[in-house]
Amino acid sequence: MDIQFTEEQELLRSSVQRLLRDQYDFEARRKIVASEEGFSRTQWEAFAELGLLAAPFSENAGGLGGGPLSTMIIMHEFGRHLVVEPFLETVVLAGSLIEHAGTPEQQQAFIPGIVDGNKIWALAWTEKVSRFDFADVTTTARREGNDYVLSGTKTMVIAAPWADYLIVSARTSGDDRDRAGVSLFVVDRRAAGLDLQSFKTIDGRRAAEISLREVRGQLLGREGKGVALLEAGRDRAIAALCAEAVGAIGELNSATLDYSKTRKQFGTTIGSFQVLQHRMVDMFIAHQEALSLMQHLSLNLSAGDGLSRLASGAKSKIGYAAKFVADQAVQLHGGMGMTDEFNVGHYFKRISSINIQFGDPAFHVLRYAQLDAAA
């Protein structure tokens, strides 16, 4: 599959490429990750000025109406440059939940702050024993006046240390794993009773363990519909993560091919060894297959029926392809492949993180089979 981009989409892609080429090379990225805050507000403002934070939102919501294909274009380029800024968490996850589930008042209150880059969001749904199950929620929420009061803990909340607001899943009724009893809430990250312990992840991002003790929040969407909203959000997030992974795969292939043309062993370049040529062909094929799946998923993101199955199929196939390419790239670069000064190891770490976000490849193979059997 080869998408023929419109003039506007080509302009978006070239604009992102130019910005990242000029301002976000590997050394600039290393400095950002090593900084105290762990991301660049200057770059985040540049993304907003370029319209990247507005691109996926509909025009009715104050965006540019680019939809899933604009997200794919942006995340693909972000994957090529290992961008750490929280586009996925703020725009793809939180922003889309607000747009699809929020009241008109909530959309007017929250989306403009995302679009102009003034507010950062994070999604807090994982708990220590929940793994990939949206319904396995022990955090509770009870109604108190017009608001709700939340108590519980969330783990591994990506981008929470940077966030101004959180979307938190909490149980409003039912027992553990009761799908009908989970709701979503908007919580101010600096609210009284909210404790946040931040840490650095393996791929250079920031995450947090969050404790909520009688924290006030406002309902997002309808009560008891949280799992369905999160599942739809997962499909959108998977499409974005697949695009990011494909961008990383392409860069690993290019770096490995270039290295094979210069690294000499036994008096000749390693690229002349037939066994390594075969391996790099396999890497190229894996990239092309992943690229086609990425495009197919993004094109069908708004199709409705069968989308979750397609998302799981893409997540598993691209996940395995990305791991294969990352493993080969590290091995073919030898010991230098895992040094901090060289970018290959950083791509390897990011791919490893992508592979476990919203379900690892093995989880999605099983989910695909279950959805296929139920179809």
Automatic annotation (TrEMBL):
InterPro entries referenced in this protein's UniProt entry, alphabetically: Acyl-CoA_Oxase/DH_mid-dom, Acyl-CoA_Oxase/DH_mid-dom_sf, AcylCo_DH-like_C, AcylCo_DH/oxidase_C, AcylCoA_DH/ox_N, AcylCoA_DH/ox_N_sf, AcylCoA_DH/oxidase_NM_dom_sf
Cofactor: FAD
Domain Acyl-CoA dehydrogenase/oxidase C-terminal: 239-360
Boundaries of every Acyl-CoA dehydrogenase/oxidase N-terminal domain copy: 6-117
Alphabetized Pfam families for the sequence: Acyl-CoA_dh_1, Acyl-CoA_dh_M, Acyl-CoA_dh_N
Keywords linked to the UniProt accession: FAD, Flavoprotein, Oxidoreductase
SUPFAM superfamilies in the cross-refs: Acyl-CoA dehydrogenase C-terminal domain-like, Acyl-CoA dehydrogenase NM domain-like
Residue intervals of the Acyl-CoA oxidase/dehydrogenase middle domain: 122-210
Molecular function GO labels: acyl-CoA dehydrogenase activity; flavin adenine dinucleotide binding
Protein family per UniProt: Belongs to the acyl-CoA dehydrogenase family.
Protein's name in the database: Acyl-CoA dehydrogenase
The species this protein was found in: Bradyrhizobium vignae
